[in-house]
Every structure is written in C-alpha cells, then in structure tokens.
Amino acid sequence: MARMKVLNGPSIRRMPIYLYWLSVMQARGDEFASTTQLAEYIDLEPINVRKDIALTGVTGTVGVGYRVGDLIVGIRRYLGWDAMRPACLVGVGALGRALLGHREFQEAGLKFTCVFDSDEQKIGTVVRGHEVLSMDVMAETVAAMKPEVAVICVPAEGAQKVVDDLVDYGIKSFWSFSNVSLRVPEGVFIQREVIAGGYAMLSVKLAQMKRK
Hints:
single chain; 212 residues; alpha/beta; Arc Repressor Mutant, subunit A; Rossmann fold; two-stranded antiparallel sheet; 46% helix; globular
C-alpha cells in the first residue's frame, strides 16, 4: 500500500481554526482580518499565517488585510468544504454517537447518510436522527446511498474486516478512529485518528514540567 502524501499538513490542520475565528469576526461585523489578528488568536508568527493563507489563493491589501468573507470562502474551497460529501458511519458506541451529533461536520460538508452496527440491541434504534442498520444490509445500502467516506468507530479487532468489506463495496476513503493500523489496496486511502495520541503529548509535557 502506497502512502498518500499531502503537502502542507500543518497548514491544513490550522485552517479550521482560522475559519472559526473568521466566523466570529464576521458575526461581530468585522469586514477585514489582518494576519496579525489571526496570528495572535492562533499563537503563531504572522509570516506563517501569510503562508497558510497564500495556499487558498486569497489576496489581501497591504495595511488593510483580507476581506473576512472572501477568506472564509477561500479556505472552505481550499479544504473542499464547499460541497457536501455523503458518509456512512460504522460503530455506534460512545464515540460514534458523539460524531453523529457533531454539528460542525455539516458545516464542513460531511453528511452522514447511513449508520451501521453489529449489536442487535442497537439495530433499529434511532441515534441522532439516524436509524441504526444491521451490518447484514451494508452492501446493498452502500450501493444505494453511495457514500464517499466511511467513518470507522469499531473496536480495533474488528476494524480490518469492516474496512475490507467496505472496500469491496466501493468505498475508497476512510476516516478511522479505531486504534489500529489498517491495510488497504492501492487507490484507497485512510486518515487515522488516534485520540490517545493527543493525550500522550499532553502527558509527556506534564512529565517534563515536573522534572524542571
């Protein structure tokens, strides 16, 4: 499996933070945003903010800044958030339920159209407005709904089988919250989120502070 390389990863991860603050500025009536304002909010050097914004193709005016509305549109377009992407979710545990209720996904163009679980007690129930379907009907449901993205929230031991099945059903992009390295064929890509990784970083920082 070849790893898909994406340039400007740190800049891309900062884009949603810019969007949030720009939406705050827009709501309070600000017409322009400067790199200094954005840099202060995100705690970054202004030169890095300018480089990030340059990726979007939006240009500003010296001494004035960027039009807030233009910058919001430009960032959303750069991220591909200006179009709605249908998605399926597999695994309706605590994390899966939380993701279904995360309203910011809609703003980012991610819309859950089908939800699956293997637990008989969950099948047929409605979670966050979505009926939980059996894994037994996943093939025909995916064929009918044609989700572009599959969000995986199943235990690590079952994640590879779920991904293998979904690849067979035509899914080519995965967002995995299962704490395991998944293997996929060429032309299929996975974005893996390891929630414990963030806490690991915090824990190391705390340990280093205590040693000082």
